[in-house]
Design goal:
heterodimer; A: alpha+beta; four-stranded mixed sheet; 8 strands; B: four-stranded mixed sheet; three-stranded antiparallel sheet; 11 helices; 56% helix; globular
């Protein structure tokens, strides 16, 4: 048992920490600051800041140096994620490109794709969307119907994607397209890298129940994409997608714990302020959530250990998703019970602004749906981990 | 970062499980359960193995013929014994040795530690009652050569009790024998303090939590195996989504409980700042998941799971008893709230 990071990793932490404290404007860390901005303004600030961060050498922490990364360890990546949360740095504007697309391109991309995609991604010059979900294919991803028809050196793409994060701010989209007419389920799909800045692509924001529009819908109407912009083999897009999704594992749980634990403390503070901290039911509720949060922290350390040892977690990643998403949702349900009949008010009588907390409470309803719903994760766990029959 | 069991630690656990599978399976457990309270509940062959294979020597220092290992290794053994719903005074013996190691005099250590390590003497440990007024519900109190118990109702002190008279206490958990004790000879453990007493209680709590994790994992594994094969409506029961999702949630829960207990053992061994929280989290989670998993074992075996002939009730009944020991889910959560709200 060794729960410490190496000296080099800790040195990286202090270097990063001092850079962050010097470069994050104070007002950004004020509760509610980001919720007070409109989507475009928030996006612009975050994009600029990330470029500054990349220029200072704090991007691509675990990427090889040949791609402009830092060549760091999984432990350094975990520290990086944790410190971003600790410093209240804004969330990345390119989460899907950085976490999923880049490692996939490094693994199976052509030399030209590696050269063209990875550097600009690192500097956030190109914002990537993920075009997987469709109106008829959410959790049942293989039911997708967006079509790509070969026309010389190009595919002509028609169809629609939905729940696309950053749809209106995206430059490019890695998307699953049925490129073999009449093919069924997992077969005949290709992963195409489509330029969103062309006449055949339209993106529309979708207003969420929180009022924000972090995601939207994307329409392809004779959009064109060179055949050379297929990632992986043509017709083998399902396998590419599975490889891409396998990069979802890793050390992010430690940063989630750090963030959720801070929220737990904020919620406990609200309970104290309202005198609800002596209610035995509320105490039991909070302690139940804290128990699950501590389990998330320990599970994340176990996952990091496995990653550092080069073990593939495979379908065990479903367990991580279930643990964090269900716990996060539970936390915010407890928050509502603490407020009681005032659960929907914008502010407490003493003027305490509750809207930033409400935004999290609303957001918590989405986390058990996206990235594979809790029901899908349970089925995967039962069939692939426990070996129950299909 | 290394948060996992080492290969040696895994092998330690595997050796206990292998022994139980080959030499002391659930049929042997049944013999003990059905023998009832008149029997001492400590099968000679199993107890001899505990001594010979070092299960009782785990935390005893090497200078007293022990292995000099920590609670992390001890919880590996506890988990394996829980998985086998194994009878016998292993936990009490280890905890008595721990108490004597941490609070005893040199003479007491020399007198007891080598014998406890070798399994030549049976130890017991309790935090309930007092040596002065009597001790209710001591695990294997009737066969213990030495019992570590509170000196008085309010005193921080601990003492050794020998030669007490024992009255068996009935229990529906037939895998463990319980007794009330009165009288006997007492001698104080001179190093005992409120702090050490709490530490010892924490170590006891971790070992109980580990037993619960073993019970829960085994209950789930057996249920999954049964539902993979058992057919109803022409298909395996395990193909129904209602069953799958319940068992998937239990898998996540048991895995989390195992992490929590492993960390609590490490925190207790190293005196980490968050040791108290870690122990409370481990016991709350392990108790909760063991109650769920053993109830599910009965439910997802259908009618057969409710019969005396099936083994499910060994797991369920032991989980019920241990879930309440050293603080149930609600009281551990109150501890957690006191630390974090």
């Amino acid at each position: 048992m060794d729960l410490t990071f190496t000296a080099a990793e800790e040195e990286f932490r202090s270097e990063l920490r001092s850079w962050l404290s010097a470069h994050i404007p104070g007002e950004w860390t004020r509760p509610g600051f980001w919720e007070s901005l409109d989507d475009d303004e928030s996006f612009r600030l975050r994009r600029d800041w990330e470029r500054e961060k990349a220029d200072a050498g704090f991007a691509g922490i675990e990427w090889p140096t040949e791609y402009g990364g830092r060549g760091g360890t999984p432990g350094m990546k975990a520290i990086y994620d944790e410190e971003m949360v600790r410093a209240r740095a804004p969330r990345t504007v390119n989460p899907l490109g950085l976490a999923f697309l880049a490692p996939t391109v490094m693994a199976i991309g052509t030399d030209a794709q590696r050269k063209e995609i990875i550097g600009p991604l690192l500097r956030n010059e190109v914002i990537w969307c993920q075009g997987f979900s469709e109106p008829g294919a959410g959790s049942d991803l293989a039911a997708l119907s967006t079509k790509g028809v070969r026309d010389g050196d190009e595919f002509v793409v028609n169809g629609q994607k939905v729940w696309t994060t950053n749809a209106v701010h995206g430059d490019k989209i890695f998307t699953l397209v049925r490129t073999e007419p009449g093919s069924q389920k997992h077969r005949g799909i290709s992963m195409l890298l489509i330029d969103m800045n062309q006449p055949g692509v339209t993106a529309r924001p979708l207003k969420q129940m929180s009022g924000a529009s972090e995601f939207g819908e994307v329409f392809f109407d004779d959009a064109r994409v060179p055949v050379s912009d297929c990632l992986g083999e043509i017709g083998d897009g399902w396998r590419t997608a599975m490889l891409l999704l396998s990069f979802e594992r890793g050390a992010s749980g430690i940063s989630q714990y750090t963030e959720f634990r801070r929220q737990y403390d904020e919620i406990a503070a609200v309970a104290r302020k309202l005198g609800r901290d002596t209610d035995p039911v509320i105490r039991d509720d909070l302690a139940r959530v804290l128990t699950e949060l501590e389990c998330l922290r320990l599970h994340s350390m176990h996952v990091l250990t496995q990653v550092e040892q080069g073990r593939d977690l495979g379908f065990e990643a479903s367990m991580t998703k279930l643990q964090w998403s269900e716990t996060f949702q539970d936390l915010w349900e407890v928050y509502d019970r603490i407020l009681g009949e005032d659960a929907t008010l914008d502010a407490l009588p003493d003027g305490t602004d509750l809207r930033p907390l409400h935004a999290q409470a609303m957001w918590s309803r989405s986390v058990t749906i996206w990235g594979g719903s809790s029901q899908v994760q349970r089925t995967i766990t039962a069939e692939r981990v426990l070996g129950l029959p299909r | 970062m290394f948060f996992a069991l080492t290969e040696e630690q895994q092998e330690f656990g595997a050796a206990v499980r292998d022994y139980l599978a080959e030499r002391f399976d659930l049929a042997a457990v049944r013999d003990v359960v059905e023998a009832g309270p008149g029997d001492d509940g400590n099968p000679a062959a199993l107890w001899t193995a505990a001594g010979e294979q070092g299960w009782t020597a785990v935390t005893v220092p090497e200078e007293h013929d022990g292995l000099g290992l920590g609670l992390v290794e001890a919880q590996v053994i506890a988990r394996a014994l829980g998985a086998g719903v194994a009878p016998g005074p292993w936990r009490g013996t280890v905890l008595a040795a721990d108490a004597i190691r941490l609070t005893g005099s040199d003479e007491q250590r020399a007198a007891w530690l080598p014998r406890l390590a070798a399994g030549e003497a049976v130890g017991a440990f309790t935090t309930r009652g007092s040596a002065a007024d009597g001790l209710p519900v001591v695990e294997y109190g009737a066969i213990a050569d030495v019992v570590v118990a509170p000196s008085g109702p309010d005193a921080p002190g601990l003492c050794l009790v020998t030669g007490a008279s024992a009255t068996p206490a009935g229990s529906y958990d037939g895998t463990t024998r319980l007794a009330t004790l009165a009288g006997g000879t007492t001698e104080p453990l001179p190093g005992a303090s409120a702090g050490l007493r709490r530490q010892l209680t924490d170590r006891a709590t971790v070992l109980v939590a580990a037993d619960l994790v073993g019970i829960a994992r085994e209950a789930l594994t057996r249920t999954v195996a049964y539902d993979r094969d058992r057919e109803q409506f022409g298909v395996p029961v395990g193909s129904f989504q209602a069953v799958k999702h319940a068992l998937a949630d239990l898998h996540v829960g048991v895995t989390m409980a195992a992490h929590a207990v492993l960390y609590a053992a490490h925190a207790a061994d190293t005196g980490a700042d968050d040791a108290e929280l870690a122990v409370a989290v481990a016991k709350a989670k392990a108790s909760e998941v063991a109650l769920q998993a053993t109830a599910a074992m009965i439910q997802y075996h259908g009618g057969i799971g409710y019969t005396w002939e099936h083994e499910a009730h060994f797991f369920y009944k032991r989980a019920r008893r241990l879930a309440g020991q050293y603080g149930d889910v609600a009281s551990q959560r109150e501890r957690i709230a006191a630390l974090t709200v």
